[in-house]
């Protein structure tokens, strides 16, 4: 499996590293400007995020591993989303208003899980440890558990705005968190943990035996923090109005944006800070 890791001259590796930073910069720009022309910039953003994930993941774990990551993420997320739309388990009762769809789930949802899931995974490897063949059980389970918390922190900041304000999906019975039910976040924990744990088990059994390849964990960390920054921008620029959820409760969008900013600062940005400190300590030990 070590043959999957990129090899070549030092100049070649530096060129590839520079290319990854360029993709990181482009993705960050699209993240921070996507609300200017959402119909145009959001598809471009998702494409840039997907390109980054494949390029970074292939350099870090090998092409086969990142394909496995995408496969398990797309299958698990789509299966459980469709199950919930039909039965209410595990997220609750809701439906999407966007298309095109795979069964009852928009095609963009699976890739969105994957790109942010990969960022959350990398953050968790900084906080807990890399999963590779022979990894102990604590790391093999702990890394996907922490990554799932990093993922749910994203949804905690995102869901009320995209569902209650923008109505990209509708919670049919509303919910106490600005129209979003508690069960949604529990469902997110289950779903994200499931595909991240499957990826961890794959890496433990068939992943690269060497150290992770020459792709900086700082790049996913920058994009995770950049994703958090988008919610702070929405707090500043979002339209102040009132919105009504499917259960008939009326909410002020200003309150939703402010709560999103608070959960972002003390959720996603706190996690990013812990990961940045872990990365800095790791680099200091190597010097």
From TrEMBL:
TM helices/strands, residue ranges: 36-55, 67-85, 105-128, 140-157, 177-203, 215-236, 256-280
Pfam family, one: Caroten_synth
Coiled coil spans: none
Swiss-Prot/TrEMBL keywords: Membrane, Transmembrane, Transmembrane helix
Protein name per UniProt: Carotenoid biosynthesis protein
């Amino acid at each position: 499996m070590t043959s999957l890791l990129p090899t070549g001259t030092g100049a070649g590796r530096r060129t590839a590293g520079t290319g990854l930073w360029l993709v990181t910069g482009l993705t960050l720009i699209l993240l921070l400007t996507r609300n200017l022309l959402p119909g145009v910039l959001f598809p471009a953003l998702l494409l840039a995020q997907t390109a980054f994930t494949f390029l970074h993941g292939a350099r870090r774990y090998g092409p086969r591993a990142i394909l496995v990551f995408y496969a398990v993420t797309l299958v698990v997320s789509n299966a459980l989303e469709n199950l919930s739309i039909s039965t209410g388990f595990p997220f609750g009762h809701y439906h999407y208003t966007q298309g095109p769809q795979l069964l009852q789930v928009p095609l963009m949802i699976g890739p969105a899980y994957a790109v942010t899931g990969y960022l959350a995974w990398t953050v968790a490897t900084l906080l807990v440890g890399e999963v590779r063949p022979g990894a102990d059980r604590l790391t093999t389970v702990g890394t996907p558990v922490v990554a799932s918390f990093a993922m749910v922190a994203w949804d905690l900041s995102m869901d009320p705005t995209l569902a209650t304000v923008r109505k990209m999906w509708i919670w049919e019975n509303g919910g106490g968190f600005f129209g979003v039910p508690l069960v949604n976040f529990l469902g997110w924990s289950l779903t994200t943990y499931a595909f991240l744990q499957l990826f961890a088990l794959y890496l433990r059994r068939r992943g690269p035996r060497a150290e992770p390849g020459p792709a900086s964990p700082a790049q996913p960390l920058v994009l995770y923090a950049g994703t958090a920054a988008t919610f702070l921008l929405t707090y500043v620029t979002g339209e102040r109005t009132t919105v009504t959820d499917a259960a008939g409760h009326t909410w002020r969008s200003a309150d939703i944006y402010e709560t999103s900013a608070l959960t972002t600062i003390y959720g996603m940005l706190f996690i990013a800070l812990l990961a940045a400190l872990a990365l800095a300590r790791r680099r200091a030990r190597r010097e």
